[in-house]
Structure formats: C-alpha cells, structure tokens
Amino acid sequence: MSLVNRVAGAIFILDQLSKYLVVHLMQLDQRQEIAVLPPFVNFRMAWNQGINFGLFQSGADVMRWVLIAVALVIAAWVWLWVRHERHSQRVLISAGLLVGGALGNVIDRVIYGAVADFLNMSLPGIDNPYSFNIADVAIFAGALGLVFFTGRPAKAA
To answer: Is 117 an annotated catalytic residue?
Structure first.
C-alpha cells in the first residue's frame, strides 16, 4: 500500500472516529457545546453546508452534490497525479492528508447533508464563532504542503 493511501486512510479513520465520538457518543449534536479547556478549546456543533468557514452555504440539495462532486474530483486528481510522477515523501504525505480529509468531509455530506464541524478554538476575551474538524485541518495542511513541497526534486530511494 502506498504512503498516500496509508496517510489518507489514517486521516479518514481519525476524522470519522472523532466525529462519531464527539457528535454521537458525547451527544454534541444535542448539547451544542462542551467546554473542554475553555476558552482555548471547546466542542461547538456546527453543520457546515458550504466550504471552509461556511462560504457558499446553501440549503439547496443540488449544492450539496456539487460540493461532493468537486471534492471527489480534486481528491481523485491529486491521487492520480502523485501516482504518475515521482515525488518526495513530503508531497506524498501532503497528498494523503488532502485526499483523506476530503473523503472524510464527503462522507459527512452524503450521510448528514452537511459537514460535522465541532472543534472551536478561542482566546480569553475573543470568542471565535467558527468550528472545524480534523478533515479540515488535514485538507489545509495537505494543500499547504503541496504548495510548499511540489516542484522540489524527489530524492533517489
């Protein structure tokens, strides 16, 4: 199994497991908020029908399927691209982060109609209104890694 697949699989499982534990077992979907290490870390339920920070939110079911299709196309393109060219380990890990995170959020959209966001970080006196999830962190880190590490020659194995 390739490094990309292992990283993507680990992120996907970690994301879905965290959502199941927090949203369902801890009943965040009913409680709406759980103070973990206030004000720094809280669980705050948010159903995101858009992309990051709720951009392009729409209650229309067609937008849900458009976002699913876009995420699948991007994940597939990145996965195929790293398979057909030689890349450094950093690029492969970055690709795995992006693919695993994208698939984690796709599953949410298919099952719930929206992405389950629950991680909230704030500072004393500053209440951050946004929540995110592990998949979001992985997508962001993976995209950043692809920007920074792509184009550098891969070392010979």
So the answer is: yes
Confidence of residue 49 (pLDDT cuts 50, 70, 90): confident
Residue 154 lies in a domain: no
Q: Is 108 marked active-site?
A: no
Cis preceding linkage at 39, omega within 30: yes
Residue 157 counted as domain residue: no
Does residue 70 lie in a domain region?
Answer: yes
Range of 28's domain? 3-149
Q: Is residue 156 part of a domain?
A: no
Given a contact cutoff of 8 angstroms between Cβ atoms, the answer to whether 102 and 74 are in contact is yes
111-156 confidence digits (pLDDT tens):
999 999 999 999 999 999 999 999 999 999 999 999 999 876 655 5
Strand residue runs (E) in 3-150: 33-37, 41-48, 115-121
Alpha carbons within 13 angstroms on the beta-carbon side of residue 34 total 16
> What is the C-alpha separation between 63 and 101, in angstroms, rounded?
19
